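Journal club side-thread
Mid-discussion, someone asked how the predicted structure for our own chain would compare to the paper's figures. Pasting it here so we can look after the session.
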Amino acid sequence: MKLNIKYIPLVLFFMAMGAVFAFFYTELALPEFNGFTMKVRDMRGQKAFDLPVQQTYLLKIWGDDIIEKAHLNGLPLTHTIYRPRKTLKEFYYLLPSGTTKPGENILAAVPGKRYSFMIRNNIVATDFGVISFKDNQIGKNRASFGLFASFMLLFSAIGLFIYYISSVLSSMPFNNILIAQTASFLPCIAFLYLIRQINNLLPINLYFLKNSYFGVCAFLIAIFYVPAMFLLLLKGNKAYTSVATDGKNANIHTCVVAGGKGYAEKLIGHRAVKWLLSREFADKCLILFMALLFSCAFLMAVKFEFLASFFGNIAYLVLVTAVIIKLRKSARPSQ
């Protein structure tokens, strides 16, 4: 790809996108999170325990009887949530940073019957992200020139590579590819901006872990970029329009291969498209099953376990469908 002045706006666009995503990375992503959780079971009366730092904690007390009074370091506590279960009563207390202290703390509950408690410095902590209290100090990524420069170079390199592949495969005009890439970035930026506004309005903070941040961004960009490219390909092809609007019996193979100015031919070949479309429904289900398995492996690699589990369930249903169809067909008597 020769250097051309028309690529300058594209490079500047990707550098700007890299700076935007670097900003949200410093605001919403954590390099790692070492949460504090302590659980004590089957105790009576009061219990002394150690806390690492003075910050806001979430306290959960559960037992067979209702807790009438609870005190931490001599200060009365008021439960925020009460959740009765079949055999246990659960009480949740919010412990502001003014009620806790580093080192030894004393928890007392009345009546002095058997109960258990758990204390943690976050609301939810998973491999995907963390929901923490606003006044808790969490090691976020620091904004630096090196960080922003790395994001700008990374986005420029990946963006130019995708543009080059798209232009070679589809022969799409430069402006159309730029429109598709712009449309794919805006929903992801809007999502990240919404998360940041939620953090500003609520007394909690939502954070992604490092791998999850990149996984979410890549997933959101991809699910909007592929349909945008497909629509622009169809829009710019007169052959596809003439075949689709013709009232006669049109060959679906010709329709697909003609779409996108030979995009299908250049990407996977005319024979592959014909072979895929000519397969039986059960065979197509098996191919979809294998594609979903590869998707699950990729999602697991970027710490997107909940999406991998979702696609895994779909893959299981698709496989069962294909097997049932195959068994039903083989059980029919041969004519």
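Post-session note: DSSP finds ten helices and 13 strands in the chain.
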